[in-house]
Amino acid sequence: MLQRIPAYGRRASSREELLALIDRIRGIIGSTPVRCFQLGGYRLCVKLEYVNPTGSHKDRIALYMVRGAIESGVLGPGGCVAEVSSGNTAASVAWISWSLGLRPVLFVESRASETKKSLIRMLGGEIVEIHDEGLGRDWVRERAEELGCVLLDQLSNEYNHLAHYETTAVELLNQVSQVDAFVMGVGTGGTITGVARRLRESQGNALVAAVTPRGSKLAGGPGADTIEGLTSHTVPEVYQRHSSLIDRVVEVESSEALAGIEALASATGILAGPSTGAALAAASKLVAEGALDTGSTVVIVAADSLARYPQLSSQLRLGSGRGDVLLNSWWS
Ligand SMILES: Cc1ncc(COP(=O)(O)O)c(C=O)c1O
Description:
Elements: H1 15-26, E1 34-39, E2 42-48, H2 58-71, E3 80-84, H3 88-99, E4 103-109, H4 114-122, E5 126-130, H5 136-146, E6 149-151, H6 158-175, E7 181-185, H7 190-202, E8 207-213, H8 237-241, E9 248-252, H9 254-268, H10 274-288, E10 297-302, H11 322-331
Parallel strand pairs: 2-10, 3-4, 3-6, 4-5, 7-8, 7-10, 8-9
Antiparallel strand pairs: 1-2
Helix pairs in contact: 1-2, 2-3, 2-6, 6-7, 9-10, 9-11, 10-11
Bound molecules: pyridoxal-5'-phosphate.
The site of pyridoxal-5'-phosphate has 15 residues, from α7.
InterPro entries: Cys_Synth/Cystath_Beta-Synth (IPR050214), TrpB-like_PALP (IPR001926), TrpB-like_PALP_sf (IPR036052)
Protein name: Cysteine synthase A
Organism: Pyrodictium abyssi
């Protein structure tokens, strides 16, 4: 039977109607495929989160955070939803909110690219530009309040963690019977901690490795290198709250993340974004240092697609040999 598409953009007249619409939108988020490949003596499985409607894993948390706000009573029909993001979360929050007849307001750094801003606008989002990066979260909270918006704040919102604990991780464990290592970049820490918690409950001994840019705060450094989608200058509250679930922190240089994109593309045909390239680079380091037994299954997440980063095309070339350095460790 054909699924009836929710009445996108229609303003619900009650909280119950909003929650019913959310249930229907939930049906088109998640249930993303996993592809597994034999790489030398190891199995690499990749969960393809770019299959989600707006192209990333953030659709899951946007739905959970908005639903949480509705259930707690702070957000009602026609209400306003705010978030600080110019990336994947911005697209997800704009899309979910607009679909529910809510007003999405996104706080975006003024130097964010016009491509990113246009995507947010296309998805129904209003943009408030942050011209001075030093203004911080209090400033954003005050502006959001002035506008009458509920600030979701993915960096501290526990529904971020919960979305991955209840959906991403459950799907993953149904799709991959034995997970020996889960390697994931940290932006807010929602994905890695949500999946890690479920892994700990069902398969106690999986190695959970957090991937972070070289010299980041999370790795005890000053916050030097950057990889898009991953945090460098802060250790987010969601990550801090659940950091006892993490076994290892693996630092990756931005150039290694690019090599990881090429390696993944040449070994599997999957075209993923830089955070996934960083995860592949980190997994390759773990394999190279003997942290994983031969025969292990390593899981990474393709949080988004390379298609979201047209500016990277000129820096990448399949067959350049850069990716081989990473892939060799899986075969030797
Ligand atoms: C492309 C990309 N990869 C990875 C992450 C990290 O996910 P999380 O915020 O769940 O740690 C993000 C988060 O912003 C992202 O946008």
